[in-house]
Amino acid sequence: MTTHRVVPTAIALLLTLIGWPSPVPAQQTPAAPVSAPLGNIRYEITFDSITAQSRSLQVAMSFDVTGPGPVLLSFPEWTPGAYELSFFARWVSNFAPTADDTALKWDKLDYDTYRVIPGGAKAVTVRFNYLADTLDNAMAWARPDFALFNGTNVLPYPEGRGTSFPATVTIKTEPSWLVATGMQSVPQQPHTYREGNYHDLVDKPFFVGRMDLDSTQVAGAWTRLATYPAGALAGSARAETLAELGKMIPAEAAVFGETPWPHYSVMMIFDSAYGGGSALEHTNSHVGIYSPGFIGNPILASITAHEIFHAWNVKRLRPADMVPYRYDRSEPTVWLWVSEGITDYYADLAILRGGIINQQQFLSATGDKMAKVADAPPTALEDASLSTWIHPTDGSQYIYYPKGSLAGFALDIMIRDASDNRHSLDDVMRELYRTTYKAGRGFTGADWWGAVSRAAGGRSFADFAAKYVDGREPYPWAQVLPLAGLRIQSDTTREARLGIVAGQDSAGAVVVRQILPGGAAEEAGVKAGDVLVAIGDIAITDPDFGTKFRERYGKEEGKPLPIQVRRAGQTTTLTGTVRLVPRVESRLAIDPAAAPKAVRVREGIFKGTVGQ
Ligand SMILES: [Zn+2]
What we know:
The chain has 612 residues and is of the alpha+beta class. Helices cover 29% and strands 28% of the residues. The protein is built from 17 helices and 29 strands. The strands form 6 sheets. The chain has a 7-stranded mixed β-sheet. It has a 6-stranded mixed β-sheet with strand order 1-20-21-19-18-17, with helices on one face. Helix 7 packs across helix 10 (400-418) and helix 10 packs across helix 17 (596-607). The protein binds zinc ion. Zinc ion is lined by residues 1-2, 281, 306, 310, 340, 343.
């Protein structure tokens, strides 16, 4: 997935705390309960103008009981791609199993497994309501005329019976409302879909209701665009989005040598209550939720390219730790820097190679990633990959996106340099796709580093892995960038700083965590634990706080600086002095004096080509 949250920039800038993520808690191996065998599984989901009023989905799961014992129905604990435990049984109510209209006995076996006693019944229907009140692409959300839901939310599975069972899903809705999903339609049966196994059933989210829906042919396959609310992405902005799909998808397919879907669905929700943007990938679709301000901004194309690239990288080519997906526990892996970070690298490359952004914009986006990594606590890619499940609070939570992207950039440069641009990171991705995904397995460390080394003519990357993937050393840009005819240009400016490390608490308050020596905050008497309220007349909660603070006080060195804090329930104003500290502003730039070989490497990266 990818997330672009709006966070106060001052906090990001001030966060200089060094931290080490905690290890993921040990998994307990549960006993292995097994459900009675089930056949002929059908799910029916009702969402219409009536159920919309209670923001609920009515679900009916019908099946034949084909053997003895209780029926054990489990709800997934997470949605693959959204690396957190959510426990979707939380949103279930009015659970009611029946056979021949007679209620069956039931209780719970564990917190997300229901135990139904069929009592000799052969045909059973289980009904329940699912509360759709969470605007999150891994969850379910309803409005008066629309619902988003995922199979992981509403499709329970028979415990201990594997994932290879086929099932149908039928949507009951208003006659004039539309249904969008990546699922396979059953001919002649309106709003009915069928998949051959549980992985596919829960990997194809639904939009139901009023929406804009149209299709375009891209790379020999239909690409659908479903957007809510109707009219949100319209006119030239919609035409532009459709055109961009036609530019980015071929650039991505070229990396792997195939477009692996018969049809792909781009599903977008625009909601003004949603700060930022976030999207979640699937095998032949993705769901993005965005602030309407993202329309017309290249960030929307970048996120879209990221999610579509995931159709190859993570939905198909995937770390062995997550093959197969299992739904009853977390699946931590040290490889999210490849699955997410390198996806992010290719998203930027795809929109560059497709002509959606230019070289300057690509270099600027890459420079922004360098700045994000520099501002975060030094964190190993492997550790950040593992830790995301527990949402670390030290500023390292999503660092495997920009830092993993930069690892991909560095590896691409080193492979192209070692092979005089005859090979690239594309070879690594393509080889692993063929030798692991196509062979029905996930990739391991030996697979990954073996492919990297082969692409680079046999060169060892053990040192790179130890220092920059398992270790926390800063990337060696001074050595790597010249190989691609690039360099970092730095300008030193002086800017106002408070001299604190701060973070948001669960209520959104900005709490001082640490006072840095010699800063304005220390002089004013700010203490760790104080809640920052305002600096001068700039509220700390202002989304542009960082920019406004630097503009207001950037030329006021030595003048009084009022710092309003809340301490023990009392609001007081402390007074310090404006302090300016040097800040090095760096940007990634083309070196006009680069040697011909470095120019070949650079052009190869920009254009997606190898050779001279
Ligand atoms: Zn992602």
